[in-house]
Amino acid sequence: MKILGKLLWLATLILVVGVVYLSGFDDLYFAEYSRVHLTDITVEQRLDEAALQELCPNMGVEPEEYGYYLVSCTLQNESAVDGYFWADNAFHNSAETSYYSTLESTISTQQQTYSGTWLVPGGETVVARFVLLTGAEDTDVTASQYGSIVAQLQ
Amino acid sequence: MKIKCQACGKRYDTDTDELCPYCGNYNPIGQEEEAPSDKPSWHERAKEREEKRSERIARLRAKAQEKSSYSGEPQQQQTPKEAKKTGCAGCGTSIAGLVLWIVLVVVLTGPVRQLVFTMIKEKNDQQSTQMKVVEIVQDETYPVDGEMFGAGRCMNIPIETQQEDLLKENGYEVAPGMQLTAVELKGSIFADFYLKVDDVVYREVYSWELNQIAAEKMGLSENSDVALFLTPVGSQEYQLCVREMQEMDFASDDRVSTLVRIPLQVEEV
Lengths: 154, 269
Hints:
Chain A is an alpha+beta fold and about 150 residues long.
């Protein structure tokens, strides 16, 4: 009985100490090892209604309220671990009063991993092309998370 | 007035003390000289109590000895000093002792844990930048995941109605100005690959019927393995990339241990 009690005591000690130790292990296990950088933004063209209908066939168009641009970004992954680029909410105007989003388009379908998410394979420099939805009056696009890269909206 | 206490039998002065100064008993005045009580005196009762107590202790000891002789434990007679000692040692296995031990172990070995975690992180950081890049030519093969892999012919196929319908049936949307790029695979078809066209990465489009059509258009046999990609018309640089992945220690991510690049010469239909 005495031995069993001691064993139970020891097991509890090991368990609790183990739990305390391993509680920080998650941060290590799920740490981000990929290093994806956005190095360039190129605004290819402002899309008119006809062009937009071709690229985004299921989308309603409101040119008075929004600006639609075909944009390409150069992304560099400096690590050997696959990384991702989340385009939604990565872009905004320089005053940071308006955040932009990407639209589901046929041009991006085969490049994206998920909607609005681009896989940047380990060790690669890739280009992501997508349709960016901005405010009708916005004149620039900025990505402050990636070192404030700015491009003018044409 | 001096009276004799009915409880302890000692005499005391009621003018000085209301209660018996020896035992604290109250003795009504005038009754102290009553007929001697049948009750035992204080001394007798105390003696009786002491005797009973000794008997009880002896009984308990005997019982304890009996118990320990059954369990085979050596019989030990503890002095009060020893009992005090073992009582304190028992604290080590109590709940308070457990908490104390946990705090002690966690606090004392905390820096070691931090050091181990830092070392693992540094090792993973180092590993995450190590990658072997190999470039081979078309028709050449290279070992990937223990199997040879390579790319043969590559051809751009315009999307006609039949192909478009098959793509739509398989859930692929076709943007204007896109074409199908077919790559003949040599060796393992289960490798992790993608097509890089003018720096844009394209994932494989899979349809068994389309693969058959592409193989036929390329003049390949039915058993040939073909990978299809939707790419923009007029692209310049085509490169098939295949990777060998490796698990990282204590990390959820895999890393690319080998990246094989195969620049492709593209034929047009």
